Amino acid sequence: MDSLIIHGGQPLRGQVKISGAKNSALKLMCASLLTAEPLTLHNVPQLADITTMASLLKQHGMEISESGENSFKLRSNNITNFTAPYELVKQMRASIIVLGPLLARFGEAKISLPGGCAIGTRPVDLHLSSLKKMGAEIDIIDGYVVAKAQRLKGAEIYFEKVSVGATENTLMAATLAQGETVLHNAAQEPEISDLVECLIKMGAKIDGIGTNRLTIQGVEKLHGAEHEVVADRIETGSFIAAAAITGSEIELLGARAEHLGAVLHKFEEAGVHVEKTANGLRVKKPREIKAVDITTEPYPGFPTDMQAQFMALMTVASGASTFQETIFENRFMHVPELVRMGAKIKTSGNTAIVTGVPGLRGAEVMATDLRASFSLVIAALAAEGETRISRVYHIDRGYEKIARRLQGLGADITRIKE
Length: 418
Hints:
Structural class: alpha/beta
Strand content: 15-25%
CATH class of the largest domain: Alpha Beta
Largest sheet: 4 strands, mixed
Shape: elongated
CATH architecture of the largest domain: Alpha-beta prism
Strand order of the largest sheet: 22-23-1-24
Number of helices: 14
Number of strands: 24
CATH superfamily of the largest domain: Enolpyruvate transferase domain
Oligomer: single chain
Number of domains: 2
């Protein structure tokens, strides 16, 4: 198990390219199951989750080949296996997204109930109920979702609550369904818009991109396409927090401000100014970090995936800030680790109160999930002395070559094997 060793106090400077969005790339890879023709994806991040998804898709029979740096060609003209086994699915919850495409194109799928980060229950009920409304027969047998359908039929789908995964699964299934499907209360994340744009390139008929109401006219088949994965808005926000806590000015190449509305608003409120450049965004050196309150919400609200990173910044802010986590019930696991570094944080249920301190101290800490791991990196970059972060395989799931990229910005960070 590798660790990161960080000596804090070094200002960051220069430029860093923002990677393609993991949460978009994973679903785009699954979209290749909808056609026998090649789908070529560019700007795919080199991450553990991408490798896991590739392994899952290959065992279904998909051919995946590199077509350049961060580019892949995927072809599903010889899918022979419709089972997604537990040993692969348990590593990553996004694996459930193969359900809709397999069912829509081949009429059957057997998918293990998923695993992934231990940040709370994320049930698949909405995925299954939506597909049932489209005519699928679904049973849970020995921990597997077993689904069959002659051909899915269009339906009016009302999501009881906003669900990114259920929106994506149902959306992809609807592209090959007979008739019209309307998704109400659909998730509006930029990654879903990226998926919609790619599906349209593949021949899908979809209206309502970027809204909470998507209308899909099913077609007989989709064709191949070429698509570039959108820049990762969560990685962008993470680097903004890293620059702010170290009092640095850096440029984020490829970053898109239009996908960061609520996040940029909170950074501005905290005294962190971000401006557009010809190539992305520039973080300006803040004069003072001010405490601000955060409530996580579905997009376009403040994302739960930025909560831990923003909390790390608030540990050294002037004043006290309150965090309300409304998406997942167990997403404060980074708090004890930040406290080990001198942070002053109290939690009660889904609320955390952070009182800013003059500075943090290096310590031995442990990453508990993907976003929590980067919150510890952010804190360590500003902390006095040495911080050792263990279990960094979590960070490999969502941040591409993070030690090397931070070194390029001047951080004193080393990855060691243990």
